[in-house]
């Protein structure tokens, strides 16, 4: 099959269009998906450069060649012997787990528990823009921040980087559940974030969000420790009553393991997290990571079909322009998602 592979870590120049990759092995609970579209997430670019390599190498077992990619939308070609949810010909979308090859290819094997039916009203390209950012948001907001449809109404949530892939999805999900949502963005993205339904918009290029926001229930941070003092400022706007939550998806967890290796890195990472929890013991302090979840994706599908959530796509590239797509994502200026069309 045709796939984008890497044989070493590095810049977009390490990306190869390989036309002779073997088809994925289909396990008993898997479905084989003929991919029609995928996407490029910032995490893909980071993994291409070597971020988290001790963890990802251990998970996938084969070091190289490596097929990256975390989103798929396509058609079921084959089902495993014990797979029961889908049949050949079904249209599905998914953000598969990290223990196997990725989705920048013509085919991907996906555990059926990690997939859902593609929304009927979306194209494959639109559907491929959703799963990874949806499941990243779901893990942060539902698992860590404890926001659910029945407990969300009236909750005040700040979403940082509201015009990015995760931000554009999170704003819409939270609004669909009845939250009051504030979001930060640059001047050029104010109109987009407003269209997504944010109640309060902070232009971070001219306004310090701590001067405008206070007594929030949740901060969903997609910027995190990369900006000095940002985490502390975000925590300062939360209610200090023991119920508020700070949840970051940009944290040093994998960096610590990358720098120190698995054996030494895991304990160091655990100590770093515990130290931050202790320092911020007036709130719930959490580091969140993506987790596949087909049942949650099914709930997201329902929101998409009634248009409470809409895909936000900046650009679409063909598979053979993967390097250009990576380079664009690296600029950090994408509004919503960058999608890859697979013919």
Notes on the structure:
The protein has helices spanning 42-48, 53-60, 124-128, 131-144, 165-176, 190-195, 230-236, 253-279, 294-305, 322-330; strands spanning 3-5, 16-18, 30-40, 72-79, 91-94, 107-111, 115-117, 156-159, 180-185, 200-203, 218-221, 245-248, 284-287, 313-318, 337-341. It is an alpha/beta fold and 343 residues long. The protein has two domains: 3-130 and 311-341, Quinone Oxidoreductase, Chain A, domain 1 (Alpha-Beta Complex), CATH 3.90.180; 133-287, 3-Layer(aba) Sandwich (Rossmann fold). The strands form three sheets. Strands 3, 4, 5, 6, 7, 14 and 15 form a seven-stranded mixed beta sheet that branches. The protein has a six-stranded parallel beta sheet with strand order 10-9-8-11-12-13, sandwiched between helices. It has a two-stranded antiparallel ribbon with strand order 1-2. β8 (156-159), α5 and β9 form a beta-alpha-beta unit. α4 packs across α5 (165-176). The longest helix has 27 residues, at 253-279. The protein is globular.
Q: Share of helix among residues?
A: 25-40%
Using the alpha-carbon principal axes, give the shape. Answer: globular
The count of domains is 2
In whole angstroms, how far apart are the ends? Answer: 12 Å
Mean pLDDT: 96
The stretches of 5 or more residues where confidence is low (pLDDT under 50) are none
- What is Rg? 20 Å
Main beta-sheet annotation: 7 strands, mixed
CATH class designation of the largest domain: Alpha Beta
Q: What is the count of β-strands? A: 15
CATH architecture level-2 label of the largest domain: Alpha-Beta Complex
What name goes with the CATH superfamily of the largest domain?
Answer: Medium-chain alcohol dehydrogenases, catalytic domain
CATH topology of the largest domain: Quinone Oxidoreductase, Chain A, domain 1
* H-E order: EEEHHEEEEHHEHEHEEHEHEHEHE
Structural class: alpha/beta
Strand content: 15-25%
Number of separate helices: 10
């Amino acid at each position: 099959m045709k796939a984008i592979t890497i044989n070493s870590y590095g810049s977009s120049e390490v990306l190869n269009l390989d036309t002779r990759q073997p088809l994925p092995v289909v396990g008993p609970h898997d479905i084989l998906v003929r991919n029609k579209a995928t996407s490029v997430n910032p995490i893909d670019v980071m993994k291409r450069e070597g971020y988290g390599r001790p963890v990802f190498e251990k998970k996938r077992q084969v070091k190289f060649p490596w097929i990256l990619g975390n989103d798929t939308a396509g058609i079921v070609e084959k089902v495993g012997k014990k797979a029961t949810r889908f049949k050949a010909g079904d249209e599905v979308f998914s953000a598969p787990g990290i223990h196997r090859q990725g989705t920048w290819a013509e085919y991907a094997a996906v555990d059926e528990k990690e997939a859902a039916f593609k929304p009927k009203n979306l194209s494959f390209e639109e559907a491929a823009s959703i799963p990874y950012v949806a499941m990243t948001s779901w893990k942060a907001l539902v698992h860590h921040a404890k926001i659910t449809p029945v407990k969300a109404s009236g909750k005040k949530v700040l979403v940082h980087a509201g015009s990015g892939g995760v931000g554009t999805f999170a704003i819409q999900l939270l609004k669909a559940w009845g939250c009051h949502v504030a979001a930060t963005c640059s001047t050029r993205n104010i109109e987009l974030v407003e269209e997504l339904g944010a109640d309060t918009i902070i232009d971070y290029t001219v306004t310090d969000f701590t001067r405008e926001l206070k007594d929030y229930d949740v901060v969903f941070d997609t910027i995190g420790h990369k900006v000095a003092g940002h985490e502390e400022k975000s925590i300062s706007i939360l209610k200090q009553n023991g119920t508020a939550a700070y949840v970051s998806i940009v944290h040093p967890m994998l960096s610590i393991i990358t720098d120190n290796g698995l054996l030494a890195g895991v304990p160091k990472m655990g100590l770093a997290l515990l130290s931050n929890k202790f320092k911020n013991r007036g709130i719930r302090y959490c580091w969140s990571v993506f987790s596949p979840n087909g049942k949650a994706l099914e709930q997201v599908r329902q929101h998409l079909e009634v248009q409470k959530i809409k895909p936000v796509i900046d650009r679409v590239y063909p598979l053979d322009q993967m390097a250009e797509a990576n380079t664009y994502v690296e600029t950090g200026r994408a509004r919503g998602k960058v999608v890859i069309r697979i013919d």
